[in-house]
Amino acid sequence: MASLTNPTTLSTLTHHHHQPSSISTFTLFNSPKHPSFTPLITHSTITTNPTVFRRTPTITSATTNPSPSTSTASFHGTCYVVRDNIDTDQIIPAEYLTLVPSKPDEYKKLGSYALIGLPSSYEQRFVEPGENNSKYSIIIAGDNFGCGSSREHAPVALGAAGVAAVVAESYARIFFRNSVATGEVYPLESEVRVCDECRTGDVVTIELEGSLLVNHTTGKQYRLKPIGDAGPVIEAGGIFAYARKTGMIPG
Amino acid sequence: MATSSFISTRLSSGPSIHTPISKKNKLSTKIMAVMTPQTSDRKPSTTGSVKTGMTMTEKIFARASERTQLSPGENVWVNVDVFMTHDICGPGVIGVFKREFGDDAKVWDREKVVIIPDHYIFTSDERANRNVDIIRDFSNEQNIKYFYDITDRGDFKANPDYKGVCHIALAQEGHCRPGEILVGTDSHTCTAGAFGQFATGIGNTDAGFVLGTGKILLKVPPTLRFVLDGEMPDYLLAKDLILHIIGEISVSGATYKAMEFVGTTIETLSMEERMTLCNMVIEAGGKNGIVPADATTFKYLEDKTSVSYEPVYSDAQAGYVAEYRIDVTKLEPLVAKPHSPDNRGLARECKDIKLDRVYIGSCTGGKTEDFLAAAKLLLASGDKVKVPTYIVPATQKVWMDLYTLPVPGSGGKTCWQIFEQAGCNSPNSPSCGACMGGPLDTYARMNEPQVCLSTTNRNFPGRMGHKEGQIYLASPYTAAASALTGFVTDPRDFLH
Q1: N or C: less crowded end of chain B, CB within 10 Å?
Q2: Is B231 exposed, middle or buried (CB count within 10 Å of its CB: 0-12, 13-18, 19+)?
Q3: Are residues B75 and A24, on separate chains, in Cβ contact within 8 Å?
């Protein structure tokens, strides 16, 4: 029987399946990313919204970095590492979904419960009891981060807790979409399993323009995948800002 | 040789062009055309210069975005036919809507918005109760045509409008129609794909956008095709089929893709069975599930909707990312073991797993036919259950069916009579119930680290409440069989 006490056991439960060889017809379709729109934003800024719950990525300077970056083109802080298939119930358990993200005080409360659903095999808690914010501003994850329920409370809770960006091997699509639509966390993809090479507490920097993740603690650097079609939406500041910029809704 | 007309013909039909061979065998110094070497396996059809066949999902996107042709990977604005929200996301959606469109804004179409309280209803949690009030106030303010209200929490039957689980209510109330686009603030919105439509879950912000505009920006998904053939064995249900598929492709096997289900087996499935199948595509990461509409679909819709609809079907030459062929006669009853829906196992190989409880309910396994199946197995056994067995009908209508519909082969007994005789708990008020845990006082919530077998859709850590709870997902047949023994049990032990 599966045991929750050993995180290795949890990750071995995930099956990386290959397509069965017995498929009778196989049409391989490499879907190239076809942007049917061109990005309207040429510089990397993230517009802020006056209401309290729309965030700009917070930049935390590390003590080891003599010249902290103040540009919105990078994120800097300590990272928290999680494994594969972290579903939204673990990011924000269902019992907290009575909190309404559009209400400022409930938005804050959601932050206090971010990742509280992780099993006890995760020794460090993401948010300390009694706190609303996490000391970790970057999450490093494995495959399929944010799978399961479509609850937007998930990226909201992370954002409310102070997370600026997530670097995952891959995302579940609804979570990715919600992150982009809300602008709460910047969802980046790595090319390798950075969750195997980073540890909770490592000091990292994400350079958006260079598509780079730098782990200052280990001294290693990792290529990040380009943000792709979501880029213009994120850069505009979310789906509404993007829709206004492209004329889909009046400004 | 009319070389110039040859070149112009070639140029207009594709990217590769030929260098003409001079009849005089003399090298011409005038460059007429250059042939580029082929660097990738790219058929002319992918350049868009040739019209390709489309899958039914692509066709639905094309129609909804007013295009004649599109391909997977394109981002398009589509018109939404039906938008659904419930009590836990509704308030957040309303917040976004008012923030972005103004306090006095009106929804894009008061008849295309369906608001269904179903998640945290029968609880004393004040915020949960307040959330139902919020969606009621909004529905009144906006004159929303379809708001399935509940005001008397003490007696669900005293609420004539109340339905229950949103995905089942959408189907039962005729809001699911072939060829349409349905989006909802719940990941299991994909259930409606059973009706041959595109249906997917979205978050509050996207939903607020839809409320104001009736449009959403979507990327056209490529399609995975699942061909299921063979006569469905009488010990298998659609739940076994989808558990088999998820186990095969993994929880991320269908990410960003459509899952299309066809084949002779699919054609024999009822609408509720098709709903079970499409319900869990999200557990494979799927963007949507879809089953072609046929006589079964049209019959189901006959008495439920008068809105006209136009079904679409995949072209014979449509392109698929992959095709899986499954001979259902070779399948066996399955479970998804803790803690992942893709942790597939044979029920018969888990017979040493001792259970603390069995739960039969939810959009996945709490429909009328799910209970009829469970009752059929309990009847075949004649025994009593060995563990607490929770019965939570999805909607008011399902609840009524438990008490009125005769179970085939029982001599006129209802599901409830059979459940009662077998020692199951009385059916509880229709709602999502304990499928996702919920507020601490939710009926059948797992508040201790127990082992539960359920007909629900997810078994990640903490899903039904306690973080150390162990959840085995299974079909209603397997659930009933397991309730009778107190261990995970293959239903063939009772069905022959």
Answers
A1: C
A2: exposed
A3: no
